[in-house]
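Before the break, one more example. Copy the sequence into your notebook; we will annotate it together after we see the structure.
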Amino acid sequence: MKKWIVGCVMALGLAGSALAAGGGFQLDKAPDLSKKSEKEYQAALQNGAKLFVNYCLNCHSAAFMRFNRLKDIGLTEQQIKDNLLFTTDKVGEVMKSTINPRQAKDWFGANPPDLTVIARAKAGPDGTGADYLYTYMRTFYRDETKATGWNNLAFPSVGMPHVLAELQGDRKPVLDEHGVPVRDEKHQIKWEVIKPGKLSEQEYDKAVGDLVAYMQWMAEPVQTSRKTIGYFVLAFLAFFTFVAWRLNKVFWKDIK
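Here is what the structure looks like once it is written out:
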């Protein structure tokens, strides 16, 4: 019995140490675009879908999402065919990557993961999956010691190159004497710009916000309608409770 208790204590201690070692990097809060007007939210999702297809779908798949589901965010079938259908010629097909899995493993050390539900899978004690993705896509920096030439603060020694580099540009974090990224009074990491990208910092953050919003929607396409259905269910339950209460009163009125 004593050995069992000691073993449990040691296991809990090791688990606590692992959690302490695995976390700690401060994630930035991803903007909640679903709170915007329906028109603005759909526009953000459409821009995020365009960024996803153009920059992510080259290596990653979204094997549980079909192109025709993009009609749910306001796109017509013709718009999908003309602007987003690069990996297939059928709107009903799933979002498959164009990369050969064997080549991907040779280039990056592993086959790039499917991204259909990545926005839900990356949720943790430090923040939501959206917070992680928003921080991850904004903390790439140049590191010539890595095979890809890139590294990431949120995911050190990442095997993925910075696919949005042409938009964000090349930069490095400003580090203190201990090698820790320096933050300003708003707790934002300070960066040294090596080569500017096509977008300003604010424009890039907005683009990443749109991309993350789309990936959130892709992980749960019914999230908006689910909330609406929830309101109707609560209203029905309230009405049914009132009816049941009145019926109960009628049935028992003559019984003392």
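The radius of gyration is 24 Å. The first strand starts at residue 62 and ends at 66. Try to locate both features in your own notes.
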